[in-house]
Amino acid sequence: MSILDLRRFPRAHKDAEDLLDVLVTLYWKEPPTSSLVERAGLRRADFSWNAPMSDVWPEILRRAAAQGKLRALVEAVDHDPESAAQEIIKALLAERADSGRESFGLSLIGKKAPQAVFDRDELRGHLRELSSGDARVLVLTGDSGCGKSYSLEFVIYALGRMGVSTGHVDFRKWAGSLATPAGIMRDLAHQLDWTLRTTVVGETEDTQARMLLSWFLENVRESPEDVWVCFDGPHADRLTPPALRMVKDIAVAAERRTEVTELRVVLADFEDTLPDVDRTVLRERIKPIGVPQLEAFFRAVAAEAGEEPDQDAIAVLIGELLGNGPLPTPLPLRELSLSAADIALAAFPLDV
User: Fold this and answer.
1) In a domain, 111, yes or no
2) pLDDT tens readout for residues 172-209
3) Does residue 257 sit in the same domain as residue 320?
4) Fewer CB within 10 A of the end CB, N or C, for the chain?
5) What 3-state DSSP class applies to 69?
6) What is the SS3 assignment for 70-122?
């Protein structure tokens, strides 16, 4: 299912981030934005036009998704001459539905700036277990720079292709003071389109964590679909002790299945233990990427395009990607994934 057909705008999904970025860049004033809103069947009066458009557009997309009008909104944008050169608009409108197997088998993710997916067969298997209900919690570990956050991007993207929205809290980017229970739940409520519980004045963080956990689990039980939550880098030096306990309690509740059965949790860069359930959760140690994994990526893209290049052709692509200098350890995944995608798309006739 395309993200345009979801009833919740998936802010954590790469295509959603790219779409929002394009819209804010193109339409940074009330007119013509308000005209697009009306053409999509939304009410102009529902939005605060005095606010910065970087704040208005997320609310427009949220309301459009909730009312089943997100596709109509993007179609209105597509018909506007200002968006003529924006490939992501046309790509989203043309996207077909994916089954779980197809989504988890992706070699490329993203439409505005496609990225390569390297060597994630074990992760794909774990995602199938989670989506089928056979498992509830996945913990991703590994050395610094090996690709834990990179793997989490693939998880969120693949789920979005299936029509699954995720709550995603990236503690690596948490600025200022340590993350608190209220701050974490504020992020999740915003992404999952839930009305956040009102925090009582003078409430201690321990009480907040306990009450917010109950509030969260109640919302999961009432959700018409499975709820997926991804936490990236929940370390003790980034969260207050009550906040870290709350994150762990969410994962424990998912794994126990006694309070909720609709919850899935992915913890990336998490080296702590989960009380009582630590031995039953799925765990994967993400391994560094090397030349064999890069070759496998190019062969996978070629196969999707119906081609079977020989080793010499693959060697040419690897040489173009890596150049002739010494390779750093670990390889810079972000830069490599973007460059590999560009090279693969230039070499093989593949639609993304």
Assistant:
1) no
2) 988 789 999 999 999 999 888 888 887 767 789 999 99
3) no
4) N
5) coil
6) HHHHHHHHHHCHHHCCCHHHHHHHHCCCCCHHHHHCCCEECCCCCEECCCCHH
Q: How many CA atoms lie within 13 A of 202 on its CB side?
A: 0
What is d(CA 268, CA 273) in angstroms, rounded to the nearest whole number?
13
pLDDT digit string, tens, across residues 11-67: 888 889 899 999 999 999 998 999 999 999 999 999 999 999 999 999 999 999 989
264 and 302, same structural domain? no
Answer yes or no: is 114 within a domain: no
**pTM, entire model:** 0.82
For residue 47, the one-letter residue type is: F
Tell how strand 115-116 and strand 108-109 pair up.
Answer: antiparallel
Task: Assess contact for 14 and 153: CB atoms under 8 A.
Answer: yes
DSSP 8-state symbol, 270: -
Q: How far is CA 123 from the centre of its chain?
A: 15
Q: Which two tokens stand for residue 349?
A: 């006739």
Closest CA to 59 of 11, 112, 111, 5: 11
Residue type, position 147, single letter: G
Instruction: Indicate if 90 and 211 belong to the same structural domain.
Output: no
Residues 128 and 221 in one domain: yes
Which amino acid, residue 162?
Answer: M
Q: What is the dihedral of CA 160, 163, 168, 173, to 10 degrees?
A: 30
For residue 185, the one-letter residue type is M
Amino acid at position 251, single letter: A
Helix (H) or strand (E) holding 285: strand 282-285
Tokens 């197809």, residue located = 102
Is residue 303, in this structure, part of any structural domain at all?
yes
**Sole residue written with tokens 């940074």:** 28
- Any idea what the CATH number is for the domain that residue 231 is in? 3.40.50.300
Residue 22 within any structural domain of the chain = yes
- Cβ atoms of 92 and 31 within 8 Å: the answer is no
